[in-house]
Amino acid sequence: MKFSVDRAVLLKALAHVQSVVERRNTIPILANVMLAAQDGTLTLTATDMEIAIVEDVPGVTVSRAGRTTAPAATLYEIVRKLPDGAKVELDHAGGDAPLALRAGRFATSLMVLPVEDFPSMTEGKLPHGFQIPPALLRELVDRTKFAISTEETRYYLNGIYLHATEVDGQKVLRAVATDGHRLARVEEPLPEGAEGMPGVIVPRKTVNEIRKLADETGDAIEVKLSDTKISFAFGSVRLTSKLIDGTFPEYERVIPRGNDKIMTVDKKAFADAVSRVAAISSERSRPVKLSLKQDSLTLTASSPDQGQAEEELDNGAVSYGSGPIEIGFQARYLADITDQIAEKVEFRFADGSAPTVVVDAAKPEALYVLMPMRV
Predict the structure, then answer these.
(1) Can you tell me the distance from the alpha carbon of 163 to that of 170, in angstroms, rounded to the nearest whole number?
(2) d(Cα 299, Cα 276) in Å, to the nearest integer?
(3) What is the pTM for the complete model shown?
(4) What is the mean pLDDT of each run of 10 residues along the chain (375 residues)?
(5) In total, how many domains does the chain have?
(6) Helix 267-278 and helix 331-338: axis angle, to 10°?
(7) Is residue 219 assigned to a domain?
(8) Which domain holds residue 243?
(9) Out of 35, 36, 189, 249, which residue is the most buried by the measure of CB atoms under 10 Å away?
(10) Residues 21 and 75 grouped into a single domain
(11) Cα-flanking dihedrals φ and ψ of residue 235, to 5°?
(12) Residue 66: which of 47, 86, 41, 46 has the closest Cα?
């Protein structure tokens, strides 16, 4: 195999595929990217056996067709450090011969592993398919991924639950994530072709990869799925992932329905105040107490070592018309939710110890549930 390609083109493709590769694994071939060159196209493939990513790079000058594998992270770092505008030539004579890389006066060689050892993660049959605009996919991911659990023992919470449902007679595509302390639920109009899709749990790593790729495309993303796998096509890049084999909890049961004490607050004023008062504590959980009364909100935080901080927001930023309430939340959880909201945050309380509902006043279809904590 022998081909030459512009450094910028190769670097972009390597950046996509190498991020899937696990840095530490017990199977050496999984640290490699497979390179296949023929008919003016270079195809790069990487997998960790849970996710596979394949990218076609057109416009490559192929002198000798062929395939090989090379260490993904090392190849990426070398290409990244080459000068802009460089022409990269890769040459592999076959067999156990190293992969030679040349760019201008720079030359190196990389050890390869047999192509035959590279695992194939076949898609299989993916009977359900639809297209989704990149902006809509970003919306679903951004408003929910922060609530994905990192607790491996509750593996069925380690992803976003994606499913079709109906709300007030309207069919929607809904994304839900929860870690037991907070829940995020957002919905968008159901894309054509998604009506019969099964409810699936898309793993956290896959969510992060598709979010990065969604930033780089302006065209509709093609989604195909079955009960066990899902694939996303971003132009010349296709990412296929196994789904989490588990049952997502009945999340609707934990969303309060009768919270009737409503506070509306300016997002920026609230987020800034939370950040300031929480700075008094070095604790990871950093609890912040919200004390509400008529059109007034006081935020307080304290630390045994550092002291106490307090800030009051008045009726210029706060609207609240119910009885006094005191309730505490983890500062980071409040920040994660307010980060998803543009201007006005609506809190729906029941009392100082019950779960609180938070919505974007301008986009009520994005809903969050937050468990209080003692302060």
Answers:
(1) 14
(2) 10
(3) 0.92
(4) 97 94 86 96 96 95 96 96 96 94 97 94 87 95 96 95 94 96 95 94 97 92 96 95 96 93 95 93 80 94 87 89 94 93 94 94 91 85
(5) 3
(6) 160
(7) yes
(8) 128-253
(9) 35
(10) yes
(11) 65, -115
(12) 41
